[in-house]
Design brief:
Helix content: 25-40%
Strand content: 15-25%
Organism: Clostridium botulinum B str. Osaka05
CATH class of the largest domain: Alpha Beta
Distance between the termini: 86 Å
Protein name: Cell wall binding repeat 2-containing protein (Precursor)
Mean pLDDT: 85
Structural class: alpha/beta
CATH superfamily of the largest domain: Zn-dependent exopeptidases
InterPro entries: MGlyc_endo_b_GlcNAc-like_dom, MurNAc-LAA_cat, N-acetylmuramoyl_amidase_3, SH3-like_bac-type
Shape: elongated
CATH topology of the largest domain: Aminopeptidase
Number of domains: 4
Largest sheet: 7 strands, mixed
Number of strands: 19
Radius of gyration: 27 Å
Pfam family, one: SH3_3
Low-confidence stretches: 351-360, 433-441
GO molecular function, one term: N-acetylmuramoyl-L-alanine amidase activity
Length: 524
């Protein structure tokens, strides 16, 4: 029986990556891109994947091959016997290279027009005898390749691919790139709510809920100072990690006129993202928001620049009073649980007692407004840093009334009274010591820095003042910190996040550094 090239894919992206990495462990992650365009063109993922592996020697190429990895040419397009090295088509990105491969294969196996919304990018498309190879068996003997054994080689690889076993991590477990909206240095919308601070706080609530279900969550947040910079940083982090799904969190604005929740995906073929988006809209609409549904846009950077699929969430309109009241009345924990439930396709409660939303390894979740990380097991010990409310940290050991956590470079201690512990085996618990003084939630002074270039200057000040240091971004992402803060030493920028703020800044980076040096001299 012939093996058709078009049809429903049987192989999974994980299976494809595992098959490739059994041969080349250093190969770039391409399966999600291949899945994206195979779905659009109706081509079986497994056929295109084994063809790529055959044409590129499992992305290892060779010293004598015409194409090279940096050319992003995964099917030998434009390479003719006798050509010199690199005398073939070259593409600027992995995505363009994959799309051109799929489009060229589509020319061989179908006489149909390009799918709606797709542009012709294959310069050799016009030279193909359309529909001349609808089956794998038709590709050799002078059609796709002159090698008479070409089809047999593909079929052999196909059999090996379909027999590849992947580690079972649970049903529908994904690697998810999560981004809490805009950079604090490039603010988003505002109105009754501030988009940037709200969605960044939501990020910290949503991340542990997804991780508790076995998903791997990649931090795709950005501190860039331009829209293009933050967009690129987010998708680059997502792609570098080989994420299956990218979820940017946002809020809409429309001069107070718009209202409701909507999600954006690449197109109607983004099956996973569309299903998740529909569930998100339905879940959040249950709070009283208008359900604006799932919409498609192939031009948005966040939908077109990722290798996997994107479901961009516009939670509500932050300049609409009705929507903003729903945010406040429902509470961020409820909203996080509804989004997590939609992504995981199961009910997840933030206050669940059945363990469904708890982490799977020894961890602690901060329950206080803010929690100091101490160098030693004492409230008078040096403060190494501050954990915001809802922060999840990995536990090394529970030592009496203190929790020893992983905190670079040498670890630190937090009060057990202000965290919720999960999955702590008896072997990690030592006998209790004397009760801890309840001083952790008293107002504290803190050093904040504006941008990454100001972090070093903040460290200079920390050495003198012996105070915790936090970025302004993280401070704003956790509004409860403001109520727990006394004096703020603000390094860089021009903002005064609390009334009792000492602003130490300059027009340029070196000016800020000099301002910090001068301040230190004055307090000595």
């Amino acid at each position: 029986m012939a093996t058709s090239i078009m049809g429903v894919s049987q192989a999974t992206t994980n299976q494809c990556e595992e098959f490739l990495r059994n041969i080349n462990s250093n190969a770039p992650y391409l399966a999600n891109i291949y899945k994206k365009y195979c779905d659009i063109y109706g081509i079986k993922l497994e056929i295109a994947w084994v063809q790529m592996c055959l044409e590129t020697n499992f992305l290892r190429y060779s010293d004598t091959s015409i194409t090279t990895l940096d050319m992003h040419n995964y099917a030998g397009l434009g390479a003719v016997d006798g050509n010199g090295r690199r005398q073939a088509l070259k593409f600027n990105t992995e995505e363009k290279g994959v799309e051109c491969h799929i489009q060229h294969l589509f020319a061989y196996c179908s006489k149909n027009s390009l799918p709606q919304g797709q542009k012709l990018i294959d310069p050799r498309f016009k030279y193909v005898d359309r529909g001349c190879a609808i089956n794998v068996e038709d590709l050799g003997g002078g059609k796709w390749a002159s090698d008479k054994q070409y089809a047999n080689k593909l079929l052999d690889l196909l059999g090996r691919l379909m027999n590849t076993k992947t580690e079972k991590k649970g049903d529908n477990v994904m690697k998810i790139g999560l981004r809490g909206g805009h950079s604090p240095n490039c603010k988003g919308a505002s109105g009754y709510l501030d988009e940037q601070s709200c969605v960044r706080e939501l990020y910290y609530k949503l991340k542990p809920l997804l991780e508790a279900q076995g998903h791997t969550v990649i931090d795709c947040n950005s501190n860039a100072s331009s829209v293009s910079g933050e967009l690129s940083e987010g998708t680059n982090k997502c792609n570098s990690a080989g994420c299956d799904l990218y979820i940017p969190l946002h809020m809409n604005a429309s001069n107070g006129q718009g209202n409701g929740v909507e999600c954006w995906t690449y197109n109607s073929n983004s099956s996973t993202a569309n299903a998740i988006g529909n569930r998100i809209c339905s879940n959040l609409a249950s709070l009283g928001l208008q359900n604006r549904g799932v919409k498609h846009n192939t031009g948005y950077h966040d939908t077109r620049a990722v290798k996997g699929q994107t479901c961009l969430i516009e939670i509500l309109f932050c300049d609409n009073k009705h929507d903003s009241d729903i945010w406040r009345n429902a509470g961020i924990n409820k909203i996080a649980s509804l989004i997590a439930s939609a992504i995981c396709n199961k009910t997840i409660n933030t206050n669940s007692s059945n363990g469904n939303s708890t982490p799977s390894k020894p961890t602690a979740v901060v329950t206080a407004s803010a929690l100091n990380i101490r160098e030693k097991k004492s409230t008078s010990s040096k403060i190494l840093g501050v954990l915001p409310s809802g922060k999840l940290v990995e536990v090394y050991k529970v030592e009496g009334d203190w929790v020893h956590i992983y905190y670079p470079p040498h670890g630190g201690f937090i009060s057990k009274q202000y965290v919720k512990l999960y999955n702590i085996p008896n072997s990690m618990v030592q006998n209790p010591s004397k009760p801890v003084e309840k001083k952790e939630e008293k107002k504290m002074d803190i050093i904040l820095y504006f941008g990454e270039t100001d972090e070093y200057c903040a460290g200079m000040l920390r050495y003198e003042l012996k105070l915790p240091v936090l970025s302004l971004r993280d401070f704003k992402a956790n509004p409860n910190l403001k109520n727990n803060t006394g004096k703020v030493y603000m390094v860089g920028g021009s903002e005064k996040p609390v009334s009792n703020t000492i602003l130490i800044t300059g027009n340029k980076r070196m000016d800020t550094a000099q301002a910090v040096v001068n301040y230190i001299k004055n307090i000595k």
